Amino acid sequence: MDGDTLFTIGALARRTGLTVKTIRYYSDEGIVPPTDRSPSGYRLYDVGALARLDLVRTLRDLGLELAVIRRVVENEITVPEVAAAHADALEVQIRTLRLRRAVLRAVAERGSTTEEMTLMHRLAKLSDEERRRLVADFVDDTFGRHDANPELVEMLRAAAPVLPDDPEPAQVEAWVELAELIQDPEFRSAVRRMAEYQAAERARGDRTGLHHELTEAVREAVGRARAEGVSPASAEAAPVVDRLTARYAATFGRPDDAELRRWLLNRLEAAGDPRTERYWQLLATVNGWPVPDSLAPVLAWFAGALRAHPAAA
Predict the structure, then answer these.
(1) From CA 43, how far away is CA 38, in angstroms rounded?
(2) In terms of CB atoms within 10 Å, which end of the chain has fewer, N or C?
(3) Is the pTM of this model over 0.85?
(4) Domains of the chain: residue spans and CATH
(5) What is the pLDDT of residues 119-145, one digit of tens each?
(6) pLDDT tens digit string along 100-124?
């Protein structure tokens, strides 16, 4: 086939597999204009038109709009530029479809109502930045009003919920529950009370941070006592309390006395709202982190033991 060969629309249709109607439409739109016309007025196309038509068909199969294809064939933009832009657009579509799939699976598993499904879809399609803003608003409305524990406030701000591109239904459910939780006025009030308590403690000189080592000491000692079946009100619980209050006294520079135990009990009760622990569990689920074990049974045992043993044995 040499460069002087011309094709009718019918011949072009047979070579490309496109319909005559489609080729005529592309020709009318100026995307694949005819090279010449026969003496009878029929459109004729050369090898270049055939190559252009193959390109148009490929780009259409990839989902590009005709306006974009026109710019490609007229050399206003290059194929690599179009491919990069279209790939980015497809990535957004794929992410959206994956999110919709996760929402639908979560709805199917939960047996959600129409209202729940609508809420789940609305919250799930929020961007990462919108999710961060929700958390930031929660932190500002609760801890932001008080000179509370700065380490905890920074942790709350930094630990933003980020749904993966292809979330599991459980992650979508966790995010929906988390979003509802941080917008719950009762939960916000409870967190404000916690912030007020921490601010008051800081005003009295507590600048010692989150005390991870004390939390782990309580978890270990109380966990062992619970595993051995020790009741918090029993005499066997007294030495457990003594060892733990001695740790607190050393950390905070206070005498290990009844006043310390009252203060420690108040501290546990101020942070004892189970919804606070639920917040961190939901956040871990959304972000795909290991979900922390519940401290609620441990802290409840310790609080009960402090009530039962208000003074050193």
Answers:
(1) 6
(2) N
(3) no
(4) 9-76 (1.10.1660.10), 211-308 (no CATH)
(5) 788 888 888 888 999 999 999 999 988
(6) 888 888 888 878 788 888 878 888 8
